Amino acid sequence: MKQTILRRYARLIARTGVNIQKGQEAVITCDLDQPKFVVLLVDECYKAGAKKVTVRFDYQPLEKLHVRHQSVSVLAKVEEWEKTRLQHYVDTLPCRIYLVSEDPDGLKGIDQKKIARAEQKRWPVVKPYSDAMENRYQWCIAAVPGAAWAKKLFPDLSRGRAVEKLWEAILFTARVTEDPVAAWEAHNRDLRDRCAYLNALGIAELRCRGDDGAGGGHENAGADGSIRRQTQRNLRGNAVRAGRRNLQNTGTAFAALSRALCADRRRFF
């Protein structure tokens, strides 16, 4: 894939995905599949005004070894240095960029129940930090090709060609055109207009029916219209929050062809 096109994608992630502001820190979490793209992304983050960019690499084979050989108590323990790092995130609210590329079957064969038990023990320690950052920092999930992922999608192609085809699919889905930032601005304007239209309808209830005519809805059971008003508030609030998120890029879920992420919360904190 041409470097000029990949740089446009990197610029899009930095300037639209997380909308880095001058003086902000950025943390990139990624796998080892596309190190050259990570270099481009770090460069674009600095060009966007970041004062410091930190990269955290993950590697599924190592994760499998950790799960296989560590006890649940060791997997679950949140070390003091981890708490210090989390507190730093709370204090500085860095932009968080997650590049998704791992093998969908990369953790196959490990004890999922063991992971779940460790996460249940770990989460109460991590949760206060997560709650302190919720809705306060910019984040973005974006896809980049991994060879194993690409071969699953394009099994008849060579490894290199499969990666290239996955790049093409990702860039198309992410609107990486001649000016992808402008393309996303237009897309966000369209979302905002749709939100405004839905809000203006004053919808009180929604009824859904299947092909067989079956369906249901919420009746306006309150004589004072309380359910109707609450439904209107919910619809209005959800639409407005969606518009704000897209227009201001605070918490943008910019996930081009992203797959279901691993439930392991350590990836995100």
Gross CATH architecture of the largest domain: 3-Layer(aba) Sandwich
Q: Kindly report how far apart the N and C termini lie.
A: 31 Å
CATH class of the largest domain: Alpha Beta
Helix content: 40-55%
Q: Do you know the CATH topology of the largest domain? A: Thermophilic metalloprotease-like
Low-confidence stretches: 217-266
What can be said about the biggest beta sheet? 4 strands, parallel
Average of pLDDT: 83
Compressed to H and E, one letter per element, the order equals HEHEHHHEHEHHHEEH
The figure for the number of domains is 2
- Global shape: globular
As laid out across the biggest beta sheet, the strand order is: 2-1-3-4
- The count of strands amounts to 6
CATH superfamily membership of the largest domain: Thermophilic metalloprotease (M29)
Total DSSP helices: 10
Q: Report the structural category.
A: alpha/beta
Radius of gyration from the alpha-carbon trace, in angstroms: 22 Å
Strand content: 5-15%
